[in-house]
Each structure stands twice: as structure tokens, then as C-alpha cells.
User: Fold Co-chaperone DjlA N-terminal domain-containing protein from Paracoccus tegillarcae.
Amino acid sequence: MFRSLLTRLFADEPAPGDIDANDAEMALAALLVRVARADDRYAKIEMRRIDQVLARRRGLSQQEAAELRAAAEMIEAEAPDTVRFTRIIKDRIALEDRFSVIAAMWEVAYSDDDRAMDEESVIRLVAGLLGVNDRDSAFARQRVLEQNGQTDNS
Assistant:
């Protein structure tokens, strides 16, 4: 099953109907892992935040979310690039819902209270690939900071 999903996710030209909404959510989970790993410090608090985001988005229990994250960690480790994940998300998640994808990425990036430029770079790349403009991405970032009681020191 895992290998089959990887094959679908990384096919050069997936056949119409090969990628479904569950694959798009797995691509999102892998992107969240990619953001957390971008600074070479994948902390437990980031893992817990990914679990919380996945549970909230999918209506999963914490155990189910942790299992989804574990699968996403394996997929992310094998992924040749970020563009393939974003292509799947862009094909399956409406533009107005991609804002929440970017907000989830900012949430993971700031979960460890460390402003890592590598994580921010990944989010900015993904936002552009998903068609989310800089202003909307900055708004999502600001909202996450406010929810966490942090301030923007940029």
C-alpha cells in the first residue's frame, strides 16, 4: 500500500482519477513534515503540532493522526522534491482552502518558538507554488503568531 501511494504521488503524469483527496491530505502531511525538518531539528513539539493539525483537518483521533504523520515522514524522506506535493494539493484542494494549508505550515514552523529561515523558505516556496500570494501568506503567519501569543520581529 505504501509503495503504491508513493508510485501515485511521484508519477511523472498521474492518470486522471489516480490521485484522490486522501492522497492530497497525505501530500499535505508530508509537506508539514518537510517544513518541520527544514532546519535539521525535527522536535517532538513539531511532531505533536503536526498531529494536532492533521487531527483537526481530518477529524482524526490523536493516535490516527500520529499514524498518518509517521506514514508522511516516510513519504517525505523519499520525495525527490517539494513540487510534486504541491502539484497534488493544487489539483485537489480549492484555492480558497489552500490558505489553510499555508496557515498549517506556519503553525508547524512556529510550534518550537524558533524562527528558522529554512522553514520560512519552504513555506514561501510552497505558497507560491499553490498560488497563495505573499500578502495572504503573511496574514496566515501573523494569525498563527497571534494565536500562539508571539510577536512578529521581522
About this structure: The chain has a mean pLDDT of 87.
